[in-house]
Amino acid sequence: MTPPSLFTLDDLNLRVRHRRTERTLVRDASLNVAAAESVGLVGESGSGKSMSIKSAMRLLPRGVTAEGRIEFDGRDVLSYNRADLAHYRSRDVAMIHQDPRAYINPTRTISQFLTEGAVHTGQMSRDEAIERACALMADVGIAGAHRRLEQFPHQLSGGLLQRVMIVAALLPSPRLIFADEPTTALDVTVQSDVMAILLEQIRDRHVSMLFVTHDLDLAAAVTDRLAVMYAGSIVETGTSAEIYSRPLHPYTAGLLQSRPSTTGVHRLTAIPGRPIAAYEADEGCSFAPRCAFATDQCRTSRPRSRTVEGRSVACHRVEEIADDLKDRAS
Ligand SMILES: Nc1ncnc2c1ncn2[C@@H]1O[C@H](COP(=O)(O)OP(=O)(O)O)[C@@H](O)[C@H]1O
Ligand SMILES: [Mg+2]
Question: Which residues, other chains included, contact 108 with Cβ-Cβ below 8 Å and sequence gap of 6+?
């Protein structure tokens, strides 16, 4: 039995006004995250991952509208009023951004950055917040917490600053963390350290995570389940292990084939063509122009997600081609 969902996107559609028309950025996206579960949202750049996370935080840019249902712990996030939203963003969920320097105010100390939210929302006193920040800094491997608290962001390396962001996310004890490419902007040598720390912390605390990345290998290694996004649509969801060993959607199989192998010589097969945004897609399957298996049906009718082998897959031909995909991906 699947555990009850803590966070749900149900048929989410995001649109932006463009000149006199509307452009679709995310189309009919559905996914859920259970308590203490990590789910990866994976797709190429421009596929709509960050927009989906922003809508989940109710932080969409001006002009972008959300339709569908966003649910946290059974409540309808899209109907939240100001007070509900403040509570939701400060206690229920937290966000870790791709580039900490673009997000943090360079004129405030680390101490101010870490404690202001919790103090302002009345969750704890300043002294309590500092004490908790120090304990969390030790947990994420930041030595000399008291000294670091008095420093400014530019005095910390990117890796250290992202650890501070992890502390900031954990400080109010949220139940769900949205992590949008949390290690992509870091030096390769520190990426795996920061990733390992983030994982250890959310596991120890039984916090759920929606982990956004373009890196299917990384996502499969660190999450329980995956949602694969292409051109604003989620084309496949399932357990990370199953998707990794037997992709059912041709796009997922393509992502798996186009990555460098670490276990031997392996010919790189890039997916032909370029990724598109949701609004560039014709009426058929958005992946059809790049898909080796596409038929006339694929080019003219958009496949809805359906359950195949216990997974959700949006492909007309999945039953016919699944075994071929497996052979190609291995
Ligand atoms: N502020 C914005 N207004 C309109 N369109 C946007 C805005 N930001 C991003 N987009 C478009 O939305 C689509 C999805 O972007 P995004 O969610 O950032 O992709 P990802 O995070 O998967 O790389 C892209 O086509 C992008 O060009
Ligand atoms: Mg993004």
Answer: 116, 152
Q: Which of 179, 186, 220, 180 is nearest to 202 (CA)?
A: 179
Asked whether residue 266 carries a pLDDT value surpassing 70, the answer given is no
pTM, to two decimals: 0.94
| Helix residue spans in 41-81 (DSSP H) | 49-56
Structural domain boundaries enclosing 28? 1-105+174-330
Contacts 24+ apart (CB under 8 A), 148-156: 148/110, 149/109, 149/110, 149/111, 149/114, 150/109, 150/110, 150/111, 151/109, 151/110, 152/106, 152/107, 152/108, 152/109, 152/110, 153/100, 153/101, 153/104, 153/105, 153/106, 153/110, 153/113, 154/106, 156/110
277 close to ligand 1 (CB < 6 Angstrom): yes
User: Domain count of the chain?
Assistant: 1
Q: What is the CATH number of the domain that holds 41?
A: 3.40.50.300
Question: Is residue 314 in some structural domain?
Answer: yes
Cβ 61 under 6 angstroms from ligand 1 = yes
Rounded Cα gap, residues 277 and 115, in angstroms: 39
267 DSSP assignment:
-
**What is the number of the ligand 1 atom nearest to the C-alpha of 16?**
4
Q: Residue 103's pLDDT band (boundaries 50, 70, 90)?
A: confident
168 lies in a domain? no
In DSSP terms, 308 is beta-bridged to 311
CB atoms within 10 A of CB 318: 20
Tell me the C-alpha distance between 237 and 243, whole Å.
8
Cα–Cα distance for residue pair 9/28, rounded to 1 Å: 9
Q: What pLDDT, on a 0 to 100 scale, did the predictor assign at position 189?
A: 87
Domain assignment of residue 122, yes or no: no
Q: Within a domain: residue 144?
A: no
> How far is Cα 262 from Cα 246, in angstroms, rounded to an integer?
18
Query: What span, in angstroms and rounded, lies between the C-alpha atoms of 230 and 305?
Result: 13
Q: 107 CB under 6 A from ligand 1?
A: no
From first CA to last CA, the distance across the chain in angstroms is 30
